[in-house]
Amino acid sequence: MTAVLRTEGIKKAYGGVQALNGAGISVDEGTIAGLIGPNGSGKTTLFNVITGYDRADEGQVHFAGQVITNAAPDKVFAAGLGRTFQLTRIFPRLTVLENMLVAAQHKRDQRHTVRRRAMELLEFVGIDRHAGLLAGSLSYGQRKLLELAYVLVADPAVILLDEPAGGVNPTLINLIADRIRELNSQGKTFLIVEHNMEFVMGLCSTITVLESGAAVVSGPPEMIRSDKRVLDAYLGADLEEEEPDE
Amino acid sequence: MNRGSRPWLVRAVLLVLLVAVTVAFPKVFTNPAVTNYGVLALIFVTVASAWNIFSGNSGYISLGHAVFFGSGAYAMGIAARDWNVQGTTVFALLPLVAAVGAVIAVIFGLIALRVRRHTFIVITIAVFFIFQLAAFNLRSFTGGSAGLNSPFLNWPSSGYNTPFYYIALAFAGATIAIAVAVRRSRFGLQLRAIRDDEDRARGLGVRAMRVKLTAFVLSGAITAMIGSVWFYYINQVEPQTGFDPLFDLLVVLMAFLGGYGTIAGPVVGALIIEPGTLWLNTQPQFSGGYLSEILLGTVFLVIVLFVPRGIVSTGGEWITRLRTRGRPAVVPAAAGAVPGGSPGGPAAASTASTADATKYPPPASRASKGGAR
């Protein structure tokens, strides 16, 4: 397996707070990778650095044989790396279908094909009957599904999901997990940040644990579950050593 | 559903009627005092629609469009003066004026479009004052505070307004057509995505700066051209009329009164406000025109407080409410309220509300529907 997405020694500071301190992760092609860690450990910051929303102070991001460190978000997306946000971000005053078409890069004569593809993806996540509604009128869970669907429109090779199961009901969590599995079987690579351990352990083949802006351990779920450093990171074995959260 | 085809027919008939009325207007009302209203109203329909192509779609409120309007007037005046262009050939300079507007928009945009919301508005105001001060002070180039006079057009004075009326009408029609085309295009969708969440749009491959700048340039070029037409119509331009701070407020007010971000909104707003101010300013009892400014301020307040989405949008909702009176309130369910729970919710209810939504479009789809009104 080759790593399709890899970061090396990423450092990022906000003023005096060192959010990332040499974070290195590696995601193999065709896998579902997980990224976990306590609040404030730098998971979302790492996502932001990879996708161009934040600039890294140091370090490199490699994606599919290219170096994409500090590339603009639109360039990163064009390179084939899509993402969702922790606090779901859709376009509330566009219709659901229009939301889908924002990401679609197409020529005029492909309009019809793109539309059909968008409708198929809406059907895939189960919100196709809302296609004509304003996205702002969707429920939170439906917005999550829409966000996943519109990222898929441009057919990115790797998708970063920031807390796909956060704040949604168990039925929907199962639906989302199911969809991720299905997309993965079609060849999509995922990197998922998630606090729901059951979700991560059930879905991911490799999990990286981030603490204080650095990767402490990486491996299959069984290994992570029993790793002492992980338990320390989450439960705080030694209070004196523990870094203040957030 | 036999009502499916009727709205198209109704719209087509309305459109033909509208064109007929606007074309026939100067034939019916030959009094120059009346056609004057028509010319200026159409000039402002063009400006407000051009403003809306950029600001209404992108959400970046420009309070500096007078920069383009004045620059267009001055560009035409300076070119005609320095190259000794006379008579109707001056209108051959329109492409040059558009180019001047476009170049200014590129430079202006590259500076101003780096920032958002309030900061953007403040920068557009600042750029506006730079241009006004330049027009006052670059005396050898702009004629200073005396301004420029347009070369003489030897059109018969009896029907002098009529050709201007049709020129302004052509500009208004073309600008509205462009606005509709933008609205329906992928470019327009990207603009509206930027309005809703610019960073998210960038993360979906939208080249935000390029898209915003294109819209700004398009809007600026149209505004510059109609500015030069206005200059010829008025026969002169001075720094305080070409670069008029009230102009910017008027244009924004027109768009907000009619319906910010819709196609029909700025048109309706301009057709109400421009003739209204003109009429007030010509009434002797309201000497000096201050009353119209006070009234404009009041109208602005009332709109922002009570009809923030404008006549076209809110009026459309009222009509819908009247038509659905006595029936279950489907409109709020489709447009406003959050449908409860999971997507696996009651399928029947959701399907019903979708069907109703196509019949009674929710607020934002009014824009596409508004085009043909």
What's a quick, concise take on this entry?
Chain A has 246 residues and is an alpha/beta fold. Chain A has nine helices and eleven strands.
How would you characterize this protein structure?
The complex is a heterodimer of chains A (246) and B (373). With 246 residues, chain A is of the alpha/beta class. Chain A has a domain at 3-88 and 156-235: P-loop containing nucleotide triphosphate hydrolases (Rossmann fold, 3-Layer(aba) Sandwich), CATH 3.40.50. Helix content of chain A is 36%, strand content 24%. Chain A has 9 helices and 11 strands. Chain A has helices at residues 43-50, 73-79, 96-102, 111-125, 140-153, 170-185, 197-203, 221-226, 228-235; strands at 3-14, 17-23, 26-28, 32-36, 58-63, 66-67, 81-83, 158-162, 189-193, 206-211, 214-219. Chain A has a 6-stranded mixed β-sheet with strand order 7-8-9-4-10-11, with helices on both faces. In chain A, strands 1, 2, 3, 5 and 6 form a 5-stranded antiparallel β-sheet that branches. Chain B is mostly helical and 373 residues long. Chain B has 2 domains: 26-243, no CATH class; 315-335 and 348-370, no CATH class. Helix content of chain B is 73%, strand content 1%. In chain B, helix 3 crosses helix 4 and helix 4 packs across helix 9 (208-234). The longest helix of chain B has 27 residues, at 32-58.
